[in-house]
Amino acid sequence: MRVLILGGDGYLGWPTAMAFAAKGHEVTVVDNYLRRAIAMETDSEALIPTPNLQLRAEIFKAATGHEIDVVIGDCCDYDLLCDVVHSFQPETIIHYAEQPSAPYSMRDYRSARRTLDNNLSATFNVIWAVMEKAPSAHIIKLGTMGEYGTPNIDIEEGWIDIEHKGRKDRFLFPRQAGSLYHTTKVLDTDMLWFYVRTFGLQVTDLMQGPVYGLRTPEADVDPRLLPNFHYDDIFGTVVNRFLTQAVAGIPLTVYGKGGQTRGYLNLLDTLQCVELAMHNAPGAGQLRVLNQFTEQFSVNDLAATVQRVGNGMGLKVEIQTVDNPRKEAEEHYYNPAHSGLIELGLKPHYMTDPVVADMLETVLHHKDAIEPRRVLPRVRWKS
Fold first, then answer.
1. Looking at the domain assignment, is residue 382 inside a domain?
2. Within 166-297, where are the H helices?
């Protein structure tokens, strides 16, 4: 298939590009290095240096013989995006091209404005480029489980049937995001749903939980092909932060009570999920929503796992509770449905102790590059 990947330099975008190219798909990636620029501006650069996108593609081709076409450009530039869609005629567009950090979106006015402008403009441009240049293309947009928040009811898979005063209808499940970043993803979903029902687009919206992991078969051929690993408080997930703190001898910083529970998945499963969505398009006039995660953990669960595995490797891992910089429920009910991808054929990889140990070993190889100042919270939701 012809696959256009927007945000192809990212933690998810680059492994997706390699995996799909290795399977024989014709892959073009677009990126403008926004994440790299923000990381430099905020002293949040990745632990493991990664070559630029053009060089990555050259290394990948030399190692495997598979080609990835690279376009350096901004998806908020409608003319550029239209030109790419028109010339490439993708059958599938995988949309990762958004500012992905909740803390960055809550940092200050400029960061919030940049998040809002980039994320909504990119999605709006994707919609219109498809409508005008490739109307049969299947848009796969990476959403987030964070759109739902933590309601005191079971979270359905995208949709909910409601009976009210004797009448029934089906609605998108109510969203109550906990950051501006997550709010832009809610607005993405609403905007996509409008254009699906009005103009007959076909869209899959993947509500993804936090992703962990570095190893993919394609990246194993050359260490320069590894995805970016952020461990800081702005781009780093809680898993990455805990792994890095364990290696650096910094107590694992649990925010507040540590009962914040989310659904997590391995990077390998992200690649599976996107591929399953691509090969099972929903059809014109359909918005399919899939909750994309394999296991649930609280922050306390993750800290205990990293501590146990780290201590077993000879690290002296301590856990420390710190004041929560975010405005969120620290103890809550959480029971989201997630059967759709399993029914499509997902074969999960779980967060076993050997998986955690392997991630710790990778971080240990780069221990000298860790900057301790980056792992403590620098952004607060409220004063």
1. no
2. 180-199, 238-248, 267-279
Domain of 228, in residue numbers: 2-374
| CB-neighbour burial class of residue 289 (10 A; exposed 0-12, middle 13-18, buried 19+) | buried
pLDDT digits (tens, 9 = 90+) for 163-182: 999 999 999 999 999 999 99
Look up residue 372 and give its DSSP letter.
G
The whole-number average pLDDT for the span 239-264 is 98
Can you give the CATH number for the domain in which 79 is found? 3.40.50.720
What integer pLDDT is reported at residue 383 of this predicted model?
62
CA distance 188 to 62: 38
Is 380 inside any structural domain? no
Separation CA 317–CA 61 (nearest Å): 41
Q: Which residues are catalytic?
A: 144, 181, 185
CA angle 301, 307, 310 (to 5 degrees): 135
Question: How long is the chain?
Answer: 383
Q: Is residue 25 part of a domain?
A: yes
pTM for the whole structure: 0.97
By three-state DSSP, how is residue 9 classified? coil
Task: Name the domain count of the chain.
Answer: 1
Query: Which tens digits make up the pLDDT trace of 179-203?
Result: 999 999 999 999 999 999 999 999 9
